[in-house]
C-alpha cells in the first residue's frame, strides 16, 4: 500500500509539474518598420530557433502599422501583453502618466549611418538641405542631431522632414526628396552599394545608451511574473545564439531570408556589431541604468523633458531577468550535482 501511495503521489507531482509547464500565451507588439530592420533580430531569432516554445511560451506577434508610440497604445488598449519600444518613448509616456515599464533590454547603442546623395562630401554641406529624420522625440533623431552638432550644424540649420522607419527613409533618400537620412542595417549597406555616400555614424557622437526595450504595463507584469521570466530566458537564449561565432552562417542565411540581405551586407552587419564587440546587443537582456540615464539626458538636451525627472530605476523592473538567471543557475547546480555517467 505504501509503495502504491508513493507511486500515486509521484504521479500527482509529475502531473502538477507538467501542468505548471503548459505554454503560457504572450502577445508581442512591434511596428512594421522595426520588423523589416535589424532591430527585430533578437525577436526573430528567438521565434525562428524555437526559444519561445522551448521555454513553454505560446508566442504571437501583434503587428503595428502606425508610428513607434503605437506599440505603447497597444499595451494600454489590451491588444498586446508586451511591446518593443524605444526607451525614449517609454520615458516620455511614463512622464505623461502611462503605467508602463521596461522588463528587458533589446538593443543598446544603435549604429545609424548618415547617408547622403553622392555629391555631398561632408556633413557641413547639408546645411539647409532636406533631411529625412525619425520622430524628433526619439533617440534616433536625438543621436543624429548630436552627430550634426559635432559637425557644426544645429537643428535650425536643417530642413527636417519626419520619416518614420529605416525602410521609409531609405526610399526617401533613393527615390524621393531627402538629401540625407539616418539608416540602420542593412539599408545603410544597400544605399552605399548603390553609390550613396556615408558621411558619419551616430555612435561617433553619443555616449552608450539603451535604445530599445521590451515594455509591459505594471499591473499586467505583476500578475504575469512567470510569463515574463520565461520570456527573459528565451531572449537570453537568443542573445547567446546571435553572439556565438558558430552561428554566423545561419544568421547570414536568416538575414537573406528575412530582409533580402546579400551575404556581403549580412556579414558586414555582424562584423559592425561584434568585430570588435560594440555592445550593440545586451549580453542577457540586462538593462544598463547608466544607458537609461543617458536617454533621459538626450531628452533634456532636446527640450523634450523639463523640470524634475525620476531616476532611471523608476522606469525599469529587473526582477524578471534576475529571477530567470537565478532559475538557470539553480538548474545548472542541480545538473552538476549528478555524477558523470549516472
Overview of the structural elements:
The chain has 342 residues and is of the alpha/beta class. It folds into 2 domains: 23-109 and 210-330, D-Maltodextrin-Binding Protein, domain 2 (3-Layer(aba) Sandwich); 113-204, D-Maltodextrin-Binding Protein, domain 2 (3-Layer(aba) Sandwich). Helix content is 46%, strand content 17%. The chain is built from 15 helices and 10 strands. The strands form 3 sheets. Strands 2-1-3-10-4 form a 5-stranded mixed β-sheet. Helix 3 (41-48) crosses helix 11 and helix 12 packs across helix 13 (263-274). The two termini are 30 Å apart.
Question: Any descriptors?
Answer:
342 residues, alpha/beta, D-Maltodextrin-Binding Protein, domain 2, 2 domains, 5-stranded mixed sheet, 17% strand, globular, disordered N terminus
Note the topology:
Layout: H1 2-20, E1 24-31, H2 32-35, H3 41-48, H4 51-54, E2 57-64, H5 70-76, E3 82-86, H6 87-95, E4 100-108, E5 113-116, E6 130-133, H7 139-150, E7 159-162, H8 166-174, E8 180-183, H9 187-193, E9 197-201, E10 210-217, H10 218-223, H11 225-243, H12 248-259, H13 263-274, H14 289-301, H15 319-336
Query: Helical stretch count?
Result: 15
Strand order of the largest sheet: 2-1-3-10-4
Q: What is the CATH class designation of the largest domain? A: Alpha Beta
DSSP summary, beta strand count: 10
What is the arithmetic mean of pLDDT? 90
CATH superfamily of the largest domain: Periplasmic binding protein-like II
CATH architecture of the largest domain: 3-Layer(aba) Sandwich
Query: Could you spell the SSE succession in H and E letters?
Result: HEHHHEHEHEEEHEHEHEEHHHHHH
The geometry reads as globular
Give the CA-CA distance, first to last residue: 30 Å
Estimated radius of gyration: 22 Å
Amino acid at each position: 500500500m505504501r509503495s502504491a501511495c508513493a507511486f500515486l503521489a509521484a504521479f500527482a507531482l509529475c502531473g502538477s509539474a507538467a501542468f505548471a509547464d503548459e505554454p503560457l500565451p504572450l502577445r508581442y507588439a512591434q511596428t512594421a518598420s522595426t520588423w523589416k530592420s535589424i532591430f527585430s533580430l533578437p525577436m526573430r531569432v528567438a521565434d525562428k530557433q524555437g526559444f519561445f516554445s522551448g521555454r513553454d511560451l505560446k508566442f504571437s506577434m501583434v503587428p503595428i502599422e502606425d508610428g513607434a508610440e503605437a506599440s505603447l497604445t497597444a499595451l494600454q488598449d489590451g491588444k498586446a501583453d508586451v511591446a518593443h519600444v524605444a526607451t525614449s518613448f517609454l520615458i516620455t509616456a511614463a512622464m505623461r502618466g502611462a503605467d508602463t515599464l521596461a522588463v528587458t533590454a533589446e538593443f543598446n547603442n544603435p549604429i545609424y549611418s548618415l547617408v547622403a546623395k553622392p555629391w555631398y562630401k561632408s556633413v557641413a554641406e547639408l546645411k539647409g538641405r532636406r533631411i529625412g529624420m525619425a520622430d524628433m522625440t526619439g533617440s534616433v533623431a536625438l543621436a543624429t542631431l548630436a552627430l550634426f552638432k559635432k559637425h557644426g550644424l544645429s537643428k535650425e540649420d536643417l530642413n527636417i522632414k519626419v520619416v518614420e522607419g529605416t525602410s521609409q527613409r531609405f526610399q526617401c533618400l533613393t527615390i524621393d526628396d531627402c538629401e540625407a537620412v539616418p539608416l540602420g542595417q542593412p539599408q545603410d549597406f544597400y544605399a552605399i552599394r548603390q553609390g550613396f555616400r556615408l558621411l558619419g555614424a551616430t555612435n561617433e557622437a553619443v555616449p552608450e545608451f539603451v535604445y530599445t526595450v521590451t515594455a509591459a504595463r505594471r499591473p499586467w507584469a505583476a500578475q504575469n511574473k512567470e510569463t515574463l521570466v520565461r520570456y527573459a530566458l528565451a531572449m537570453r537564449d537568443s542573445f547567446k545564439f546571435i553572439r556565438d561565432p558558430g552561428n554566423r552562417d545561419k544568421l547570414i542565411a536568416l538575414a537573406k531570408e528575412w530582409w533580402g540581405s546579400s551575404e556581403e551586407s549580412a556579414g558586414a552587419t555582424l562584423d559592425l556589431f561584434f568585430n570588435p564587440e560594440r555592445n550593440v546587443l545586451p549580453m542577457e537582456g540586462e538593462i544598463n541604468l547608466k544607458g537609461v540615464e543617458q536617454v533621459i539626458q538626450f531628452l533634456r538636451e532636446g527640450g523634450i523633458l523639463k523640470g524634475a525627472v525620476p531616476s532611471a530605476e523608476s522606469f525599469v523592473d529587473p526582477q524578471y531577468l534576475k529571477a530567470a538567471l537565478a532559475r538557470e543557475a539553480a538548474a545548472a547546480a542541480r545538473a552538476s550535482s549528478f555524477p558523470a555517467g549516472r
